[in-house]
UniProtKB/TrEMBL annotation:
Protein name listed in UniProt: XYL2 arabinofuranosidase
Flavoprotein recorded as keyword: no
Assigned keywords, A-Z: Glycosidase, Hydrolase
Organism: Drymodes brunneopygia
Gene Ontology terms, MF aspect: alpha-L-arabinofuranosidase activity; xylan 1,4-beta-xylosidase activity
GO biological process, one term: xylan catabolic process
UniProt cross-references to Gene3D superfamilies, sorted A to Z: Glycoside hydrolase family 3 C-terminal domain (3.40.50.1700), Glycoside hydrolase, family 3, N-terminal domain (3.20.20.300)
Pfam families from the UniProt entry: Glyco_hydro_3_C
Domain of life (superkingdom): Eukaryota
Glycoside hydrolase family 3 C-terminal domain location: 103-226
Length: 228
């Protein structure tokens, strides 16, 4: 509300929010956040004690229903570890979800899908800043990834027995530094080229919007060089 000039201070924002029914502030990383001004608003009479109790009650009711105040032994999830979370069953389900969510916009001359039985006879080049960088494959609001469980395009193809050569061209999505000579060398020796481009959280996230949809840095140049 402050950013939209509906209010002029954190105190005003706290008063307006609580009185309108808001009971939770997302303020990660902000030490002096909006709801820290609620005690002052209460002392000034801008928020009543009954209103404050009404806002807090559902928060604690929800936490109680989730078992946050129960002894750990009563929590059925407390015994789970990576052997369960990363079990073959769950990983196969993740793989199935990923496969079924792909959208192919254009498939010229039936190039796709690449068949595993043909890969050993072809030379593949996997290029681009998203080809083998686990960190940049996750979008905003994603968990902290564990690299050993992440299959980049390069790693996935190599596991299928493909003859894969690789170059990022540029080490990060912003692609300020681009190695054209290395890209041309790798692509020129390949039968099939997979180009992995994009933005990632380095370039755009919530509250970090872009004014256009163009590829950042030298990524478009990388794409054009690979195609040529």
């Amino acid at each position: 509300m402050l950013g939209h000039h509906y209010t002029h201070s954190f105190l005003e924002t706290a008063v307006a929010s609580v009185n309108a029914g808001c009971n939770l502030e997302l303020s990660y990383g902000i030490r002096n956040n909006v709801f820290m001004h609620i005690p002052k608003a209460l002392a000034m009479g801008n928020i009543t004690l009954q209103t404050l109790r009404d806002r807090v009650r559902p928060l604690f009711y929800t936490r109680m229903r989730l078992g946050e105040f129960d002894p750990p032994a009563m929590n059925p999830y407390s015994s789970l570890d990576l052997s369960v979370v990363q079990s073959p069953e769950h990983r196969n389900l993740s793989l199935e979800a990923a496969v079924k969510s792909f959208v192919l916009l254009k498939n010229v001359r039936g190039t796709l899908p690449l068949r595993a039985q043909d890969l050993s006879r072809q030379r593949l080049a996997v290029v681009g800043p998203f080809a083998d960088n686990p960190r940049v494959l996750f979008g905003d609001y994603a968990p902290v990834p564990e690299p050993q469980y992440i299959y980049t395009p390069r790693r996935g193809l190599e596991m299928l027995g493909a003859n894969v050569s690789f170059t990022a061209g540029c080490s990060e999505p912003r692609c300020h530094q681009y190695s054209r000579a290395e890209l041309v060398r790798v692509v020129g020796a390949a039968d099939v080229v997979l180009i992995c481009l994009g933005t990632g959280v380095d370039v755009e996230t919530e509250a970090k919007d872009r004014s256009d949809l163009s590829l950042p840095g030298h990524q478009l140049e990388l794409l054009q060089d690979a195609v040529q």
